[in-house]
Design brief:
With 116 residues, the chain is mainly alpha-helical. Helices cover 58% and strands 3% of the residues.
Length: 116
Amino acid sequence: MLPNRMNLTKTTEEQLKKLKSYTGISPNVSSRIAFFRSIESNFRYSNETAKKLDGSLVLDKVTWLGETQLVTELTLKLTYPELDEKEKMAAWAAHVEDGISSLRNHKSLIGLTVAL
């Protein structure tokens, strides 16, 4: 369903890396948290607001999604049944970007844990 190689926007990558420097949580794990926080907040992706996925951190979907791969792909399929594979990747990236906005300013793992 999702492509085997996936990336995000540069801005989102920078925020994930910044969060890692503060909390020690790797970008792939924090992107999973961000994705599901965004889904829970009822954010919805739109083709009109799609951004170019210009980030340099290109990882395979198993690394990005880990044990949440099946749930993530099914969530995208149910939420966006009309989108193709590339558009679903853009939707995933948009959700990560939306979700990271509520996580990016935490300066410690304890602060992030309390916020979750």
